[in-house]
């Protein structure tokens, strides 16, 4: 049996196991409208997706993942609650790491459940956990929602909060914004000179290029408003850093986050959700005292997740990407549902990596 046929056989077994858990099998097109993905991710996605053009359909992308088209399908005509499974190839450009595959199989399990989100989190995680147990993988978990709640609790402008929320998945940019908004780094000379001008547009040459004068003026006004905003306090920066530094077993992480919530009450609802999730995981037989939790986990490669996140790793093969990943993406359903939303959580397994690690049978 060739490697490719072995991967397809493993994918079929995984999909069948998800069907046995009540998931409805679905298919999605390999070519996806680029407009939807660009609207969701911005132009950054071009750097990691294969883009083509069609005279009738416009820009198209080879499917970079399944979650977006599955959510679109569900929001258009799915019932509630719903559970889906799928398998097929996804395509990712790997120009920064040519050793990584740019085409590989994914098998997924997605749950749309309004009434018991923490139980749904536990269901998805435990099914994947038990499926992959023969491989002896390390499970990592986190919760983007805790950090989002911490940002929402900052005593600063809504504009600054939006900027921080937008860059939660870009840790370096997020840190640079925190340093700037707290006054830890000086204002660049060019910006200070611009802000000191009574009329920043006086003496400017005629506007050429893509930006209109009204857009330039709007940006200058935003910079002026930001300059007039008080810096984020050192105490609040310390609390953000405290949240980001939580990296313990899940039970100890919950205790630590409860302590932080005493001084940052806006994270309390997110901490309560974490507590309910851990209870639901325990009900499903997961030992949370041995389950790793990292508050900053998932910030570099899980852009549409906004709550619970997880991944499974082969510790004896640090050269491999995660064998499985997943998480909660409630905001994505709202975005693609044009205002309608339903809590949703899912995960994907890479059967190619399962085969490389020896398989599940």
UniProtKB/TrEMBL annotation:
Every copy of the Aminoacyl-transfer RNA synthetases class-II family profile domain together lies at 14-346
What SUPFAM superfamilies does its record include? Class II aaRS and biotin synthetases (SSF55681)
Any one GO CC term of the record: cytoplasm
Native source species: Roseovarius pacificus
Which residues are recorded as binding L-histidine? Answer: 65-67, 92, 106, 110, 299, 304-305
- Describe the protein's quaternary organization and the partners it interacts with: Homodimer.
Name of the molecule in the record? Histidine--tRNA ligase
Keywords from the named record: Glycosyltransferase, Transferase
Pfam families associated with the record? tRNA-synt_His
Identify a single GO molecular function assigned to this protein.
glycosyltransferase activity
Under the heading InterPro entries, the entry gives:
aa-tRNA-synth_II, aa-tRNA-synth_II/BPL/LPL, HisRS-like_core, HisRS/HisZ
